[in-house]
Amino acid sequence: MNSEADPGENHPGATSDTMGIGLIGYGARGEALMEALSPELNVECRGVCDVHSFRREKGAAAAGKQATAHKHYLDLMGREDIHAVIIASPDHWHATMAIEAARLGKHIYLEKCMTRTESEALDLREQIRQSAVVFQLGHQGRQRDLNQKARELIINQTIGQISLIETTTNRNDTPGGWGKKAGAPADQETIDWQLFQGPDSSRSAPQFSPERYFGWRSYWDYGTGMSGDLLSNEFDAVNSILELGIPGSAMASGGIYYHQDGREVPDVFQASFEYPHRKLSLLYSGTLANGIPRGILFMGKEATLELGRSLTVWADEHSSKYKSRIESAMISPSTPFIRYDKEHVDVDAVSSPTSKYYADRGLIETYREGKPANTTSLHLGEWIRCIRNGGLTSCNIDRGFEEAITAHMATKSYREGRRVYWDAQKERIV
Asked: Which one is the CATH code of 19-140+379-396: 2.60.40.1080, 3.10.180.10, 3.90.960.10, 3.40.50.720?
């Protein structure tokens, strides 16, 4: 079966009636997702789940009187009045929770990285394909109007054949560096540590650790490092524009160069992906100790397109397509000849390097019909409309699988210190 549900009486919540939503994980992202559930969507958050008593009670209170707090996700998923789930847990729980939701017939909105491991990505894809649930991976950047404009320009051969793409992530604040955040109590009375540890009994921290709980992204037991957490955003943006799919090979490097706080994942990371069949390379670099904004560069034979908080195109000085206009001074290689700047977020409203990164990447706001729009609200809305009306979500399970495998290729390359390849026939990283 395919992964998209048809509306009808066999799919509770797929009509115009109010749809019951369950939210799993009420950290910063979970809170943002709840806030992004627009009233126009005609949904109701009826349950909030978290292993942290402070967070689950806070989440249930924010959802309203109709919402119940749950410590275990199975208690939430087992409710007949909950038709769909939003999963915003740490990465090590993603596959287990999403597979169970699909098995129970609950529609799924899952935050990235889709899975923590390669094998989980294969298992989750298989379960979604066998089910009738609608799946959406939380790459809300797919709703950005500038990304869609970039796709249009590239399809129209505005910049010619692309041979190289460069994309980046730079952050220089504590949340961006994945440090411990204040504001919530952290002890064994408020956190169910064994439940947090997850389904894999090989976790290396049997003793309660607030550092691991709050900073789970910094440890391989729970997260996917800069590859799955940050590179995945960049890859999905490029993939939504060019439909690259899984690369033929990947080579990654980096290290822990600044944040000497006991973390296991690198704070400086770079990866090179080769696409021989597309005759191009995709380069990623990132640091958690510098906040300078850098856009995505699409380098074509005729011009270069830069996609950041605005979209600009420069003609290449050796372009044959624009040669006559350059010679007649109609176009200057030193000045953009195409510029779109609708998506300007007020600098004063952007308070940190992490926030600036989200603004630059269109992960906070875009424009629809000339008005500002929250990209997460749009992405959730697309998912809910597909549940009710049928159709394919923009970041469905196949696009999610491409994201996960690409991220896992980079992680495997970094951890094993070698180039890795994607065997498309056997569907495994070698």
From this structure: 3.40.50.720
| Contact present, 354 and 176 (Cβ < 8 Å) | yes
Which residues lie across from 70 on neighbouring strands? 49
* Residues in a beta bridge with 166: 283, 297
Q: d(Cα 103, Cα 107) in Å, to the nearest integer?
A: 10
Q: Bridge-partner residues for 280, per DSSP?
A: 275
Going from the C-alpha of 336 to that of each of 148, 172, 248, 300, 376, the distances in angstroms are: 19, 29, 33, 14, 30
Query: Residue 408 carries which DSSP code?
Result: H
Distance CA 421, CA 303 (A): 30
pLDDT of 356 higher than 90:
no
**Cα(93)–Cα(275) distance, rounded to whole angstroms?**
31
DSSP state letter for 183: S
pLDDT class for 9, splitting at 50, 70, 90?
very low
Report the length, in residues, of the chain.
430
Helix (H, G, I), strand (E, B) or coil at 307: strand
Residue that has been written with the tokens 């109709």 in this structure: 66
Could you tell me the residue ranges of all domains in the chain?
Answer: 19-140+379-396
Please calculate the CA angle 208-214-218 and round it to the nearest 5 degrees.
100
- State CA 262 to chain mean position distance: 26
